[in-house]
Amino acid sequence: MSNVFAGQVLTLAQRSVVRTVRQPANIVFPLVFPLLLLAVNAGGLDAATRLPGFPTNSFVAFALAIPFIQGALFATMNAGTDLARDIQTGFLNRLALTPMRGIALLTGQLGGIVAMGVIQSLVYLGVGLAVGVRLESGPAGALVLIVLAVLISIGFGALGAFAALRTGSGEAVQSLFPVFFVFLFLSSMAMPRNLIEIDWFRAVATANPVSYLIEAIRSLIIVGWDEEALALGFGFAFAITVVAVALASMALRTRLARS
Amino acid sequence: MTDRHGIEAQGLVRVFKKGPRAVDGIDLRVEPGEIYGFLGPNGAGKSTTVLMLVTLLPPTEGSARVAGYDVVSEGPHVRASIGAALQEAALDPLLTGREHLRLQTTMHGMSAADRKQRSGELLERVGLTQAADRKVRTYSGGMKRRLDLALALVHSPSILFLDEPTTGLDIQSRLALWAEVERLARDEGVTVFLTTQYLEEADALADRVGIIDHGKIVAEGSPADLKAQVGRPTVEVVPADREERDRAAAILARFGEPCGSAAEGVAVRLRSGEADLAEIVRALDAENLKVEHLQLHQPSLDDVFLAKTGRSLEGAGDEEEVTPAAELALDRA
Hints:
The complex is a heterodimer. Helix content of chain A is 79%, strand content 0%. Chain A is mainly α. Chain A has one domain (3-255). In chain A, helix 1 (3-21) packs across helix 6 (102-130) and helix 4 (65-89) packs antiparallel against helix 8. The two termini of chain A are 24 Å apart. The model of chain A has no long low-confidence stretch (mean pLDDT 90). By secondary structure, chain B is α/β, with parallel strands linked by helices. Chain B folds into two domains: 7-227 and 309-332, Rossmann fold (3-Layer(aba) Sandwich); 232-298, Alpha-Beta Plaits. Chain B has twelve helices and 14 strands. In chain B, helix 3 (97-107) crosses helix 4 and helix 8 (223-230) crosses helix 11. The longest helix of chain B has 18 residues, at 171-188. Chain B is elongated, with a radius of gyration of 24 Å. The two termini of chain B are 36 Å apart. The mean pLDDT of chain B is 87. The chains are: A mainly alpha, B alpha/beta. The A-B interface holds A 4, 7-8, 11-12, 15, 18-19, 22-23, 86-91, 93-100, 166-169, 254-255, 257-259 and B 54-56, 58, 71-76, 78-80, 82, 84, 86-88, 90-92, 94-95, 99, 102-104, 106-109, 135, 151, 323-326, 328-329, 332-333.
């Protein structure tokens, strides 16, 4: 990677982070809302831990995986909206008139998402540990958890970037948010799949990739090193990221259709 | 081959998806170091032409060379030679002026030392040194436009495209920007392609003007030549006593043929040009006719537009205005 390209990526990533930091709502909601939801769920669904076969006696530990996914959704929607704004205001045209390579823009944008993903993961993990959750996989598991959470953020972020680049509309990006949330609610978010009694719900949750992302994070918290869960979680996260980055790259090529 | 600093276009056409023929066969030649004013109402095709010349939009038909490079096959060379401040300053309200310059200089691959030096120079030149570390959302319209200009100049381009650079600015900001554009052309030999819907801007700044309407150039030449094509100046006189309107008309008739005027006055198109003005004043005085108002009207570019299109430029842009960013967004969605 040349110095010029590296400098471009770094500067664009810095811009992405700076822009997020200067919009407090873009930091506060991705951090606070998932934690509030965790508190509500942990309080209301604690009795679920008494179900035969429930994998832990702490619902907080069970549900701590959810904020990592929700946080990634929030942050990536915000990043996608910011990119759409760049298109609408002509800022992307300004960049297109420089020798910047399109891949630098996408990498820089995703670099900002990585930075936000690391910060969010550290906060969620810190809050979990502070309320008594014990990470069964230990310090190395914490590191793997953060890597997986960041990979998920990149995948979702690239989907947000794809929507922004394809439509050029912040509203279109925002409209993805409920769709992602439907995927989240139709997953094993609130109950292990083997304990879901409604057949269609269990089938949907089994077919839903988000279930495997959550279960991989959850396994590191409440199980330890579950190779199958981690392989499925990383596999789906990687697949989502590859597909999303490919789609975003194609959309960027069309958007930056300078001669 | 076009000179390294010039612009040349032949039969340039752009048709948008499900849209109109925004640019309809434009031929252009802009000489090195020239300020070329591209004048027309909203929706005339000015911004679309600029987007094609700066390589952001491929022409549907025709060809164009900018700085000697083909805009379709040699885009990177074109972009390296030009600076552009497109319609509506495309700035990030959350970044400071200095951060914008840092971003732009980095994208142009400058070294850290060059970035710092060039940013400082440009901030000084556009009078934003004091405001450099303020977020752009606190800038006035004029400050944004000046920053926009500075960003277009970071890599010292030989050709500068300015798309309606003073739209919405107060007169003071407008004059400051005109002065900087003139300085760039005069002192640095930068070729300037400037679109505007302001007659006075084209008149004051441009060496040559192209008037565009409905995607076609309807007139081209220096402002003086264009106005001369339309006709001679007129003189309008309003007598102090409105009952003496006929007597005023008889005196003025010695100097030219009658033409339209305000209801209470009379006007003639001068036979010998503005040199007759002193004679008219003497004749009115000799006839002891008291005058409330006397005015010499030089033909304006609006008269040129009127003569060529049958409409006045003021208010001619009844089409819904589409910004360049919106045009691209529509085209690529």
